[in-house]
Each structure stands twice: as structure tokens, then as C-alpha cells.
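A reminder before we start the practical. When you read a complex entry, don't treat the lines as separate problems. The point of joint prediction is that each chain is placed relative to the others, so the output describes one connected object in space. Small molecules and nucleic acid strands, if listed, are placed in the same frame. In the example below there are two entries. Take a minute to note the order of the lines before looking further.
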Amino acid sequence: AQKVTQAQTEISVVEKEDVTLDCVYETRDTTYYLFWYKQPPSGELVFLIRRNSFDEQNEISGRYSWNFQKSTSSFNFTITASQVVDSAVYFCALSEDLGKLIFGTGTRLQVFP
Amino acid sequence: NAGVTQTPKFQVLKTGQSMTLQCAQDMNHEYMSWYRQDPGMGLRLIHYSVGAGITDQGEVPNGYNVSRSTTEDFPLRLLSAAPSQTSVYFCASSRQGATGELFFGEGSRLTVL
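Here is the predicted structure of the whole assembly.
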């Protein structure tokens, strides 16, 4: 069965610090997709990244980077030089098929000035 | 571009009342889904649809009904509201099913007294 674990409930950092949000997943399929979504205080859900199980290359987008490791079933998200605007709840999610996307419980990141 | 539109944004019900949360998308996406978000629980899938006339259950379907008569609309019905259904509800759509980027509505906050 699918499962996504985000063990960090809440993280607080000071601006300009680097922060890594952990995501561990469980799946029996060899083909699956992993996602990160951001939910800022305003409440909307914003897509950040999608990665399929056959692409283990790390990805960098500006201050954001993602480290996908199949060997440890992890898809961690790092924010470099965090900013106050990064304060949000971040969700990791997993899909094995066209029907169900399962989310983790989220990590609340607070970045203080 | 409207994207995914949910109505109403806020609703207060009494136990036992029924209501329908409306969801419409104008992106011609085949896939639509409903999630509920509760503190500490993340987003949990209620029902989903991979196309008009096709619906299926997610993780927490009890107490909710859906139908998909058109590609654009995917209403969520609460037949007899219970306090446990107090939550924030999100509708989402995708071009590639649950393996693609989800576009979310702004959410509907429901309180059941």
C-alpha cells in the first residue's frame, strides 16, 4: 500500500539558513510519481515538482533542490538561503496510478527574519 | 483563466443537514478529485474521477457521494452532515490523472455544528 511519511511536523529557521524537509515513501510498484506541494498561509496549494521513479537525477530550481534516492525511498526537499516568503506547509505526495495521489501529513516551515 | 472553481467558500451546517460542494474546471481535464484537509492529517482523498461517468473511492469516502456527468463538473454531496465532517475541502483536476500536476481550487471551509 502507498504511504508517505513526513516525520518533521514543524521546522523553524532564521532567514538565510538552509533547511531540508524530509519525505519517506512506501510503495510496491516499480513505476510511481513523487510530488511536492506548497501551502502558504493564504491556504492555496501550489505545485512545486513532479518526479517519476525512473529519474533519480537531483533537480535544482533557484533556491529549491530535490534529492531523490530510491535506495532509501526518500525524496527530500532543500531550501537554500531561506526567506520569510518560504514560510508555508509543505506536502510530499505519491502516486502509483492514474487514480490516487496520497499525501503526507505535511511539514510546517516557519522562517523568521 | 478560471482554473478550478469551488463554491461555496464557507458553509455552516447543522448535524443531519445535506449539502453539495460544487467544483468546476475549465481546463478540459479528465481527472478530478476531492480532498479534505484536517489539522495534523494532511490531505486525504475522498473520491476521484478519471473521466465523465467514472468515479471511485479514495481513502475516506464514507458520508460522501460524487457523480461526474460532465468533464467540467465534479460535485461532492454530504448526505447527512456530521461534526466529523468539519474540514477544509479541496477539489483538484489534472491532465494526467493522479500522476500529473494537480490544479487545486481555493478550498471550501465547512463547519458542522
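Discuss with your neighbour: The mean pLDDT of chain A is 94. What might explain this?
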